[in-house]
Amino acid sequence: MDPARRAMIYGRKSPPRRDIASPRRDANTRITKPTTSTNSKPANAAVQKYLSQDEQSRQFVADEDKFVLKQSKKKADIRVREGRAKPIDLLAFNLRYIDTDRDVFDDDEHDIEIDVPVPTAVVERLNAKELEELDADITSYHTLETNKNNREYWNALQTLCVDRRQKLKPTGPEGRAVSTVSADVEKILAPKNLEQLVKLEVQIQAKLRSNEVMDTDYWEQLLKSLLVFKAKAKLQNICAAIKENRIKLLLEANPEKAKVLAITSQPVVATSSVDAPAKSAPTLKPVAKFPPSTSSSNEPPPGTARFSTSGNEDFSQATKALYEREVARGIGEDEEIFTAEESVPTVAKPLWAEKYRPRKPRYFNRVQMGYEWNKYNQTHYDHDNPPPKVVQGYKFNIFYPDLIDKTKAPTFKIIREHGRRRGESFAPAGQEDTCLLRFIAGPPYEDIAFRIVDREWDYSAKKERGFRSSFDKGILQLHFQFKKIYYRK
Q1: Is 476 helix (H, G, I), strand (E, B) or coil?
Q2: What pLDDT is stored for residue 465 in this prediction?
Q3: DSSP codes, 255-303
Q4: What is the pTM for the complete model shown?
Q5: CA distances to 47, 93, 242, 281, 292 from 259, in Å
Q6: Model pLDDT, residue 267
Q7: Are 97 and 245 spatial neighbours (Cβ–Cβ below 8 Å)?
């Protein structure tokens, strides 16, 4: 550099001297280490590019499955609204009330008014071919679902389908051999909830792993049936959540129907799919289980729709008063409501049918259940795992407040079918014979019948096991229990 120019730049001072030990500052041939680390860059750019394409492919498949699932639910909703639903559509429509992944914009404002059957009812009414088709449809939904609760719902339904198909198959020699064991197993597992079933499963597995002497067929059949009843228990919990969420939605749109649904025993009212209202209907009403009437006094009270089975049910004010008074008495600890009504075969209409409108009497019946600690039950059960409850008696209360001839009390008779006589048994091993108990009254009431267990009645006058047959103030009461059989050594 020119010394004059150097002096002008650095002034009168001499230029700074470079440390001979410092690195040479040359932009073209730089020998210092770079300040930025090179570890952040991938060693192989091709691998990084391949992994990113794989992730994109997985994301594309997931989005495609999500779209297919959404479209399947939309199609199911449309078929239900138009009254042409398939079994899988009814099951998918039930799930809408607890599906957190559902898009609210896909719902119609009248969807909450549509009553569909409970999931178990949908499965139980299908034949073998329909169950096979339903099983394939459920598998598709289960594969596409990512929501944990929804997958449990479809998994439980698939378990019920497999069990139902197994029961519809012809029974071979092995199946007949364990039929008595299966009957006991169902009676034990049916009343237990999900937590009790899980606890019982652990106990049974521990018992089978032990070296103690036991009835292996019995305990293996019990363990095999446990999965089915666990699926039923899960569905019961899911149906309870469905009912609760639907009631919350109905409280805003239809408070009256919400109150009726809240006091019914079933989570979702079981009706036929053809009864579902169409989308184009201007006003939608709940599907009624009783005949419409212009008089409000003839309509059944809320919560009693399941007792109405025909169009000639008696809903007079007198009957309503008697019924409500009997309901107010409540149900005992070992009692259950009994509604096993059977159709009564009639050859011709009664002579008084033209003069009086025939009507079916209303009733509020109870069945008494309890344990029988015989030698067999004492050997196979204990108080922690009690034996299945058996029917020990019945309490029939039939209401006839509007009898034309009040001097003639209604009567009853026992009808044994297929030529069976008293004391004879045609039932398979492990099961009990049944018979029809028919109640007969004069005009304007039709006969009514119930199927009961055919065992010997106890006619003693003991207070706790007393026999009662009376007709007073329009109520026919028939209360009885079965005789206890004591085996002597």
Answers
A1: strand
A2: 62
A3: HHHHHHHHHSSSSS----GGGSPPTT-SS--PPPSS---S-GGGSPPTT
A4: 0.45
A5: 63, 22, 15, 23, 19
A6: 41
A7: yes
Q: What are 177's two structure tokens?
A: 């051999």
Mind spelling out the 3-state secondary structure of 426-450? CCCCCCCCEEEEEEECCCCECCEEE
At residue 135's C-alpha, the angle toward residues 129 and 141, to 5°, is 145
- Secondary structure letter of residue 360 according to DSSP: B
| Short-list 272, 271, 244, CA closest to 258 | 244
Round the average pLDDT of the chain to a whole number and report it.
75
Report residue 19 as tokens. 């440390």
Give 348-388 pLDDT, tens digit per residue: 677 777 778 888 899 999 999 888 888 888 888 888 888 88
Could you tell me the two tokens for 108? 């119609």
Phi, psi of 307 (to 5 degrees): -85, -10
The residue whose two tokens read 């750019």 is 45
Q: State how far the Cα of 119 lies from the Cα of 122, in Å rounded to an integer.
A: 5
Maximum C-alpha span of the chain = 146
Q: Are 72 and 141 in contact (CB under 8 A)?
A: yes
Count how many Cα atoms sit within 13 Å of the Cα of residue 487 in the half-sphere of its side chain. Answer: 6
Question: How much is the CA Rg of the chain, to the nearest whole Å?
Answer: 36
pLDDT classification of 51: cutoffs 50, 70, 90: low
User: How many Cβ atoms are within 10 Å of 383's Cβ, its own excluded?
Assistant: 7
Helix (H) or strand (E) holding 342: strand 341-342
224 contact partners, CB below 8 Å, separation of at least 6: none
Distances (CA, A) of 415 to 212, 252, 427, 452, 455: 47, 50, 16, 10, 13
Q: Residues in the chain, how many?
A: 489
Nearest to 234 by CA among 162, 157, 163: 157
Give the pLDDT of residue 452: 92
Report strand pairing: 365-370 vs 335-338.
antiparallel
**Weakest-pLDDT range from 191-195, 207-211, 260-264, 271-275:** 271-275
Distance CA 220, CA 416 (A): 36
pLDDT at position 177, please? 44
**Cβ contact 94:76 at 8 Å:** no
Who's near 345: CB < 8 A, 6+ residues apart?
A: none
Q: Are 281 and 242 in contact (CB under 8 A)?
A: no
- Residue 46's H or E segment, with its range, is helix 45-81
- Identity of the amino acid at 183: A
Question: What integer pLDDT is reported at residue 30 of this predicted model?
Answer: 56
